[in-house]
Design a protein that fits this description.
The protein is of the alpha/beta class. It is built from seven helices and ten strands.
């Protein structure tokens, strides 16, 4: 009998924010796949799931290079697929861990697409996205009434981010660790910097909170796991 693949979102950082189902399946897994970059040892997702991992489970790190070269990434995804399929053929149940939610800016999605139509059984378990955790953690309402929320990767072209923020009432801006100065400039342009909040590594021991991004130095060094929540300062009430 072939094994089953589980894509499991472990949430943003706090192990207790994993769902009951996610924790159970991690505890039952034969194999746990932990994505990592070539430059880093260990895995944040693995650390989050650690309290639920049992002694019988084998941990298998798989490298996904932090590059934008399509061929390099494609090779990495195919290699990961082949590793996973080899365990499934052995009848082992495989868990692929991912931060946040598996279907939200996740490496898991690309591996899932390679395996989904190949006859193997797959189940994807949702997780808490970082921006939802940040809103609850800080008491910061993300969106309400008929407001329009934009979810924007800071790695998108500047013109695209500008166009989106021009029409949004509220915004979640992710992956800001490289382009913070440009993001800050655009938030100021649209009167969304004063009331914005940013957290790096929410729910982890070294969490950092930044409130009001209008006066932050543009050269602030940020962790990869940094997310901004912002609201338009002059938006009209519509209720």
């Amino acid at each position: 009998m072939k094994g089953k693949l589980y894509g499991i979102g472990v949430g943003p950082g706090d192990s207790e924010l994993m769902t009951v189902k996610a924790a159970r399946l991690v505890g039952e897994a034969d194999i746990i796949i932990t994505p990592k970059t070539e430059k880093k040892d260990g895995s944040v997702a693995l650390n989050i799931a650690q309290p639920y991992i049992q002694d019988h489970t084998e941990i298998v790190p798989v490298v996904f290079p932090m590059v934008f070269h399509a061929e390099t990434l494609s090779d990495a995804w195919i290699e990961a697929k082949n590793i996973i399929v080899s365990y499934l053929e052995e009848g082992k149940n495989v868990v692929f861990l991912t931060l946040g939610d598996p279907m939200f800016y996740s490496t898991y999605m690309y591996v899932y697409r390679l395996i989904e139509n190949t006859g193997y059984d797959i189940e994807t378990i949702p997780g808490v996205p970082a921006f939802c955790a940040i809103g609850s953690h800080l008491g910061y309402p993300i969106v309400e009434k008929e407001e329009v929320l934009a979810i924007v990767p800071a790695t998108a072209p500047k013109e695209k981010i500008d166009a989106v923020l021009a029409v949004a009432d509220d915004a979640v801006i992710m992956k800001v660790y490289k382009n913070f100065d440009e993001v800050q400039e655009t938030l100021k342009k649209h009167d969304m910097a004063d009331d914005a909040v940013m957290i790096s590594r929410v729910g982890l021991p070294d969490e950092e909170v930044f409130r009001g991004l209008d006066n932050m130095p543009s050269d602030t060094k940020l962790n990869y796991l940094s997310t901004i929540l912002a609201k338009r300062k002059d938006r009209e009430c519509i209720w």
